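Protocol step 6 of 9: fold each sequence in the batch and record its structure tokens directly after the sequence line. For illustration, a two-sequence batch is reproduced in full.

Sequence one:
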Amino acid sequence: MATWQDLIAFVRTEYRVIEDGDDELRILIEYEDGRSQVIILAHEVLDSSEDWVQVASVCGRVADVDLKRLLEEIGQTSVVCGAAIMGDHVVLRHALPLENLDINEFTDPLTFVADTADQLEEMFFGGDGY
């Protein structure tokens, strides 16, 4: 996979797309227990030359969580993603360069971000809002 267009063509065939824009897709990951997680895929350009994809998922609102405890949990359990505050929300995210990207280098981190965000959302926010 070498381009953003190649990646989104793959995503459209393999995942449930719920929003589709030029440089951003939102997909829904659904779990057998009835829970779900929205994943945002965004096209990013690093240093005006390198195409990347950012994989992100909201866990909950910043105002509703003990950030120290949340970050400690992520530090102990997360291999792939990091946490950020974007607006009013805590977000897990991971970024990958598109050039020479193998499909498993995309699907595995995407699954990990979704699963981790869903687990943290349930653990720290007590719901399934994202």
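Sequence two, same batch, same settings:
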Amino acid sequence: MSKNQHVTPRQGQWAVQGEGNSRATSIHDTQAEAIDAAREIARNQQSELLIHGRDGRIRARDSYGNDPFPPKG
């Protein structure tokens, strides 16, 4: 089962953490670096990427899972 990947602020840095995990997968100096790392994991696991702002609220999300409604044609 794939886990959604969250990019969250952590003590002046940015963490990548799988949903339900108690520990971060990786810590990065910039949000952009964390997003790149989390995007790669989400693609490999066909899961969602949820990007949190400095306030901790979700500000963006991308889905890399299988599309239940693929385009026809």
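Proceed to step 7 once all outputs are recorded. Observation for sequence two: Residues 5-56 form one domain.
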